Amino acid sequence: QVRLVESGGGLMQAGDSLRLSCAASGRTFSAYGMGWFRQPPGQEREFVAAINWSGGSTFYAHSVKGRFTISRDNAKNTVSLQMNSLKPEVTAAYYCAAGPPNAGVAVTQYSYWGQGTQVTVSS
Predict the structure, then answer these.
(1) Whose CA is closest to 52, among 116, 109, 119, 113?
(2) Cα–Cα distances in Å, from 102 out to 10, 23, 53, 59?
(3) Residues 48, 61: contact at Cβ < 8 Å?
(4) Least crowded by CB within 10 Å, which of 1, 2, 23, 121?
């Protein structure tokens, strides 16, 4: 069992930067690939970014590539998502998830989920 707790969400202005964090506890954190997903109001949960178990490989949704950066610290059992140049369309609940060691882009690949943190960007 892996417990994930996200933090860092808030109400932002367009163009701002924001850093989300996810703290993990339970089983060996470094055994899992980690992902960030988001769910806009009334929409399906969608992939944002992922990182493999070692941090050596990262994956991004096309819409966030170049503006968002995922990173992890296996010594601290944390994964972060740095979000720059925020736009109103990124408004959503953001979820941290733990999955296969080499990560993935599908919701169904991830076994453990946090409770989510809300990010709201106004224009």
Answers:
(1) 109
(2) 30, 19, 6, 10
(3) yes
(4) 1
pLDDT at 27: 76
Alpha-carbon separation of residue 75 from 21, 39, 68, 79, 81 (angstroms)? 14, 29, 22, 11, 17
Q: Which amino acid is at 122?
A: S
Question: What is the pLDDT at residue 26?
Answer: 81
pLDDT (average), residues 83-91: 97
**Core vs surface per residue 60-85: b (16+ CB within 10 A) or e:** bbeebeeebbbebebeebbbbbbbee
Its sign, for the CA torsion 105, 98, 95, 113, is: positive
